[in-house]
């Protein structure tokens, strides 16, 4: 509410102007406030930083790696880093970290765990169910098939591997896995390239043990090009979104999960 002040009473004869003294300096036409002691003070503008980003000193967690992927688990507060050691028979590896710089004390292997100890791991993808489990999907170079491994970590840093299983059938070459978690259904979905692109669901058993693979989907994209394909899940529409380059243009395909 505001007005011209015509109904106000007991105003100074000067017509509503109050003269006061401000301690310190004040900019011309600068704003002032009346303090609790009756004196005036210049209005000070302050900015409070909310949730500042901090980081510890940089360190090399590993060397000679590629296919680096990160995923965060809300339940335990751990971030998993998956990568491939291309100077060590191209083995896949995962380490667990916390934002304060801590990581589990795993003795001789310093918090590291192989996701696939055979050679020639390629194209790693990583996701978390936010219940203490990470799922890694990757190309198993030994058989050129898509394999997955459940990697579990507890809040106190105890981690374990659920073992790797081949997801794509024997003789079916798969590559470039794209993995997402679907919280509305408590399942993972992995899209991967064969001659074209297909997808399968992965369900974890009780206590994040065991893996059950759903049937191979119909063709989700008829383009075999792996050019920067990505799989996303939109929990508001409960749809999967598959995005990537096709014939020089950006293409997006949406799909639903049945059953």
How does this structure look, described?
By secondary structure, the chain is mainly β. It is built from no helices and 17 strands. It has strands at about 30-35, 40, 65-70, 80-85, 90-95, 110-115, 120-130, 135-140, 145-155, 160-165, 175-180, 185-195, 195-205, 210-215, 230-235, 240-245, 250-255.
Structural class: mainly beta
How far apart lie the N and C ends?
A: 58 Å
Overall body shape: elongated
Return the string of H and E elements.
EEEEEEEEEEEEEEEEE
Instruction: Give a short account of the largest sheet.
Output: 4 strands, antiparallel
Main sheet strand line-up: 3-4-5-6
Q: Can you tell me the residue ranges where pLDDT is under 50 for at least 5 consecutive residues?
A: 55-59, 101-111
- Helix percentage: under 10%
Q: What fraction of the residues are assigned to beta strands by DSSP?
A: 35-45%
What's the tally of helices? 0
Query: What's the total number of strands?
Result: 17
